[in-house]
Amino acid sequence: MERQWPAFRGDRRLGRPPAFIWDDAGPCLNGVDTCLATLRAEGAKWLARYDDAAQYIMQRVQHHVHKRGPDGERRPLTACQKFGKPSQCRHEFPMVERLTDMPKLVCPGIAEQHGLKVSGPHTVS
Q1: N or C end of the chain: which has fewer CB within 10 A?
Q2: Would you report the helix, strand and coil content of the chain in percent, each value rounded to 5?
Q3: Global pTM?
Q4: E strand or H helix at 108, and its extent?
Q5: Could you give the CA distance from residue 72 to residue 77 in angstroms, rounded to a whole number?
Q6: What integer pLDDT is reported at residue 125 of this predicted model?
Q7: What are 39-90's pLDDT values in tens digits?
Q8: Sign of CA dihedral 111, 112, 114, 116
Q9: Among candidates 95, 98, 93, 97, which has minimal Cα distance to 82?
Q10: Which residues pair with 82 in a beta bridge?
Q11: What is the number of alpha carbons within 13 Å of residue 49 lying toward its C-beta?
Q12: Sign of the C-alpha dihedral, residues 117, 119, 121, 125?
């Protein structure tokens, strides 16, 4: 995926609704219980396919890539560089400080210890 970034030329899945959107099992002519079970199964299958399609698209349009330089190190693109610190991303990628196995509620003191913002436009209040 990184080799194709940012254009993803030739990827026909981007910018088009997936084919399963138009699929329909047709009218249900069995009993009410059978019909309901069939519809639930079809809905579960549809949701799984939708989630897969959404993940595929999000990986490509929401992907923040820092290309590798000749030495193999990742460097931010010019538009992505932090002012006065060209080796740092102004969007703070990769966000390794924010990765956890479990969701956490972080107080301002803990946030400061980990270098996270505690005020400004990109914080949640």
Answers
A1: C
A2: 35, 5, 55
A3: 0.53
A4: helix 108-113
A5: 15
A6: 47
A7: 888 889 999 999 999 988 888 876 677 878 888 888 888 888 888 888 888 8
A8: positive
A9: 93
A10: 85
A11: 13
A12: positive
Q: At residue 86, what are phi and psi to the nearest 5 degrees?
A: -60, -15
pLDDT at 22: 80
CA torsion through residues 51, 56, 59, 61, sign: negative
From residue 14, alpha-carbon distances to 18, 53, 67 in Å are 9, 10, 22
Sign of the alpha-carbon dihedral angle for 85, 88, 89, 95: negative
Three-state DSSP class for residue 34: helix
Residues in the chain: 125
- Higher-pLDDT residue of 30 and 53 is 53
